[in-house]
Amino acid sequence: MKDRILETRTLRRGWMDLLVLRMHLNGQEEERALLAHPSGSAVLAYDAGRRVAMTVRQTRAAVLHCEAPQMMEFVAGVVEDEDFAQTALREAEEEVGLRLRALEHVGAVWMSPSSSTERVHLFLAEYTPADRIGEGGGLEAENERLTVREEPLDALWDGLHAGEFADAKALLLLQALRLRRPELFEPAPAQGG
């Protein structure tokens, strides 16, 4: 008999819904919890000329609950009334004050397919200092208080190898950029004088 959902019960409604699924799974009937989470976009915005990327840090409920340190992330947010690319562009303006011109789609990934409906579309985007239109920091109306930094790509790559990456989206995006633009991770040429 084919795997299928027999019944869905909603335990909590809100920004994310908590559901219980009664399923026929591998020939047996069982229940599984499911978090109906909005899908979104994440973008690694990088300045190829200066070999830096825009990063953010903010308090995350799950990380705080687990008493883990705040983690480095790239721009990310959930889809509102727009497509995934427009979400990435909007979030770049809100979070880091960048008006991005073009996005390169990397792919879409399930964040935790065993228990969440969340899928995140991943993008790369090049920027220059002229694309900086504000300070960023998030939206006060959404109680966002982001720390925004530009960090050298080679230092981010070293951090990945040192096991400092906790955010899956950031890890995937940095690896995608490294595969597509390896020259950005080489030592910067010496400045003549």
Note down, in words, how this protein is organized:
The structure is a single chain. This protein is an alpha+beta fold and 193 residues long. The protein folds into two domains: 4-35, no CATH class; 38-185, Nucleoside Triphosphate Pyrophosphohydrolase (Alpha-Beta Complex). It is built from four helices and nine strands, in the order E-E-E-E-E-H-E-H-E-E-E-H-H. It has helices at 61-65, 84-96, 153-161, 168-180; strands at residues 4-12, 17-25, 28-36, 40-47, 52-57, 75-78, 104-110, 119-126, 147-152. Strands 4, 5, 6, 7, 8 and 9 form a six-stranded mixed beta sheet that branches. A three-stranded antiparallel beta sheet has the order 1-2-3, with no helix packed on it. The relative contact order is 0.19.
Brief summary of the model shown:
With about 190 residues, the chain is α+β, with helices and mostly antiparallel strands. It has helices at about 60-65, 85-95, 155-160, 170-180, and strands spanning about 5-10, 15-25, 30-35, 40-45, 50-55, 75-80, 105-110, 120-125, 145-150. It is elongated.
